[in-house]
User: Which sequence fits this backbone?
């Protein structure tokens, strides 16, 4: 986990930067702050002659976008400077210690993250504050388009990441893939708890099977099966994470379809909207 693509949309991204820096310190990693600026605007005004794009509104939106970019860069550079993290060009990155780099791209933020993220070890994004938002679109494109693990930063950044880890396990392919991608953090953890929810498993290995596999790799893992007790699986997973006092959750994302989760809800959807700890997700 040496390279962390970190989405910095504007000047309010401090919790994301704090989370990325804590995560990067585990591996002397490099935090790449990304800002994407679109030049495509869908603002139209109707008139007797039909629809047309207002050039004045277009210029206003473009100016606001550049203002947000300037605020994002100022935040990134001042944040890293205040924590003695050098911001350098990629070719001059220090061999040891945490470093940082600023990167600007053109295009819609979610699309840029989904594509560019394919060459990074980890993608760090904010937890969406609401559904159908740019933050949610960015998270989902990172999950479905990059092929890489995503670290979702909580609204309040943690002091540690990966000391005590809960794996939300349901036996699925997505869960197995996410555990494999999170192995660098699991290998450094003091303790790992593999949690499954009774009657919420997919056909596949049990929680104890995964815990045993991790122990064979030298990871201090135990397992626990808990009753749903009238709760949704996502709610039960978060309750177990809180009881375990964990500072990182590992969760396979959207083992049910996105459409089904949007309509009926699901564990991933609940955790995305409610988690107050960092969560590593992958699909």
Assistant:
């Amino acid at each position: 986990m040496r390279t962390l693509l970190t989405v910095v949309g504007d000047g309010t991204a401090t919790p994301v930067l704090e989370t990325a820096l804590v995560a990067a310190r585990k591996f002397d990693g490099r935090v790449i702050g990304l800002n994407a600026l679109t030049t495509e605007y869908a603002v139209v005004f109707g008139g007797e002659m039909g629809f047309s794009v207002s050039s004045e509104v277009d210029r206003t939106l473009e100016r606001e976008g550049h203002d947000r970019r300037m605020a994002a860069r100022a935040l990134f550079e001042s944040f890293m400077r205040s924590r003695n993290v050098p911001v350098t060009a990629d070719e001059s990155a220090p061999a040891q210690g945490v470093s940082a780099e600023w990167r600007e791209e053109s295009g819609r933020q979610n699309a840029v993250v989904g594509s560019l993220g394919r060459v990074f070890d980890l993608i760090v994004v904010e937890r969406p504050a609401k559904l159908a938002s740019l933050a949610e679109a960015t998270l989902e494109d990172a999950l479905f388009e990059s092929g890489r693990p995503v670290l979702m930063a909580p609204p309040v950044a943690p002091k540690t990441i990966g000391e005590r880890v809960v794996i939300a396990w349901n036996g699925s392919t997505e869960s197995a893939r996410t555990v494999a991608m999170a192995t660098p953090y699991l290998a450094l953890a003091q303790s790992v708890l593999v949690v499954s929810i009774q009657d919420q498993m997919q056909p596949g290995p049990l929680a104890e099977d995964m815990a045993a596999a991790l122990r064979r790799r030298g990871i201090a893992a135990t397992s626990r099966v808990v009753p749903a007790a009238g709760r949704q699986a996502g709610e039960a997973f978060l309750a177990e994470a809180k009881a375990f006092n964990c500072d990182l959750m590992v969760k396979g994302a959207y083992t049910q379809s996105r459409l089904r989760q949007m309509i009926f809800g699901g564990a991933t959807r609940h955790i995305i909207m409610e988690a107050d700890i960092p969560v590593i997700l992958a699909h």
Observations:
- The chain has ten helices and twelve strands.
